[in-house]
Specification:
Length: about 100
C-alpha cells in the first residue's frame, strides 16, 4: 500500500468480454485499459488467468512476468497433444498419465 491508503493496482487491457466480466465500462469497440485494485500478486495471478485471452496485464511487471511464465509452461505442457478429435489414450510413456482409461471413452 502506498501512503495515500490506496492498495495495489494492476494496469490491464481488456477485450469487451473481459471488461464486462470485471465490471469495467468498455471504451468503444476495441480494448479497454483499466486500473484494477488487487489484493496481492498471488491473488491477482489466479484471478486474471481466469479471464484467459480477455485480459492483458500491463503492470505491475512482477504480475505480468508471472502470468507470462504460467502461460509459457501451459503452452509447453499442451503442445503436441492430439486435438479433441484425437485419441483419448496418451500412451504409457507419459509422465503425467490421464486419470481416464479407454473405459472412460
Amino acid at each position: 500500500m502506498d501512503g495515500a491508503g490506496v492498495g495495489p493496482v494492476a494496469l490491464v487491457r481488456l477485450t469487451p468480454v473481459g471488461a464486462r466480466r470485471l465490471g469495467v465500462p468498455p471504451s468503444g469497440d476495441g480494448r479497454t485499459e483499466a486500473r484494477v485494485p488487487i489484493e496481492s500478486i498471488d491473488h491477482a495471478h489466479g484471478e486474471f488467468l481466469r479471464l484467459g485471452t480477455d485480459v492483458e496485464v500491463m503492470a505491475p511487471a512482477e504480475l505480468r512476468d508471472r502470468i507470462a511464465e504460467t502461460v509459457r509452461t501451459l503452452a509447453t505442457r499442451y503442445e503436441g497433444w492430439p486435438s479433441a478429435e484425437g485419441s483419448a489414450d496418451r500412451g504409457t510413456d507419459d509422465p503425467h498419465p490421464s486419470p481416464c482409461t479407454r473405459s472412460c471413452v
